[in-house]
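Thread: Nucleobase:cation symporter-2, NCS2 family, structure

OP (GT): Posting the sequence first so everyone is looking at the same thing. Length is 468 residues per the record. Can we get the structure tokens written out before standup tomorrow? I want them in the notebook alongside the other entries.
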Amino acid sequence: MEERMKQPAGTSVLPKRGGSKAKVTPKPESNLIYQVDDKPGIILMTLLGFQNILTAFGGIVAVPLVISGMAGFGIADTSYMISAALLGSGVVSIIQSKGFGPKWFRVGAGLPTIMGTDFGFVGPANAVINTMGGGIAGYFGGTMMGAVLEIILSYFIKPLMKFFPPVVTGTVISLMGLTLMPVAFDWVAGGVGAANYGSPLNLAIATIVFLLIVVLNHYGSVKIGPAAVLIGIVAGYIMCIPLGLVDFNQVAQANWFAMPQLFKYGVNFDLKFAIPFISGYLVTVIETVGVMQTIGAVTETKLTDEDIANGVRADGVGSFIGPAMGSGPVATFSQNAGLIPLTRNASRSVAITAGVLLMAMSFLPKFATLVSIMPMAVLGGAGVLMFGNVAASGVKSLSRVNFDNRNLVIVAAGLGVGLGVAFRPEVVAGLPGILNGLFSSGISAGTIVTLVLNIILKETPTMEPQEV
């Protein structure tokens, strides 16, 4: 930030995709404290990185918990799967946020991004592990082969981007925030399946965290504001301890140190195990394009088609190396995009720091457990604001769209179908084959409808007013 303040008046240095920098006119309406290339001090950068981990942790560990249950794993193997997921998420978050490789095989968009395992692969995983008898080795082999498909598809992103005008991207960004809101309110209530789901105590905890973040974000200094979510979550966590909502027995039972092992459970590269994951990877491509556009919007970075393709390629590469570590496919998380406008921090260095911290936590199961036992209501208070910010970013994008009849229909249809599928997924659960996969997510369903209508509905020429 200090470096930005030294630039000549009237110009600023923003990242130009490809590593060089270009002078551009600064946006007076920018609300960011730390832009993409800014590097906060090491202490603040570490705190902000940990803030990203807290908001993503539940999503990162949830899938390996489910997969471990499908595979019939005990406590030791389940703990290893969680550590492997943290390691995979950390490595791929660094790759996505930094960007590596030559132009023809650039991996990573170079924007602050947190990566993690995706629930979209849980259904196919159950089919491979149990129904098809592939076990955990078949799951790893199938996801690795499917990841190759995503890497190949990344080279076809550029010609597809012409079908993503603002009316489509704005709708998709809004959907991302809106479809995540039920998740946030499940957290507010205490988490799905919790015995005290929806209790007044959980609602009170979430409300206190929510209000604390709002106040710190709005009135806090340039040091306090970006860390508002972290401060709110830590305060809520501490508040829950005397209330008896935190069980430290799990921390005591966890190991202090654990080493990752490549292919600990083996791998089976049988093509039949890859087929169930095809629809999951097609959905991932669609959703990652939307997430990249969302992150571009909230970081005030103009992305090229190549940048978005690089982001999709990072998903594919991550989904290939993740299973080798004992994790599942690693995809771009949309949750953390909401942190950027809320905390006014778009620094890629913070996301890279979060990746390093995730890797460190993978070697320290006791510390990872300390985070995992955080009451869900605490995270819910932050989640409502984060996901709401994503939706608001989409509304901001749509505000630049000319809402004629055509565009109004496109937005209405995309939001209607996307929210409908998100709120009532059982309606489309009976769709056959690949359609079931493509419409299993509210984001992908709404995106597909918006894309198709944008193609088939011709634009109406604007009529010039005639002189009287």
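GT: Both are above now. Quick notes for whoever picks this up: The first helix runs from residue 2 to 5. The chain has one domain: 35-456.
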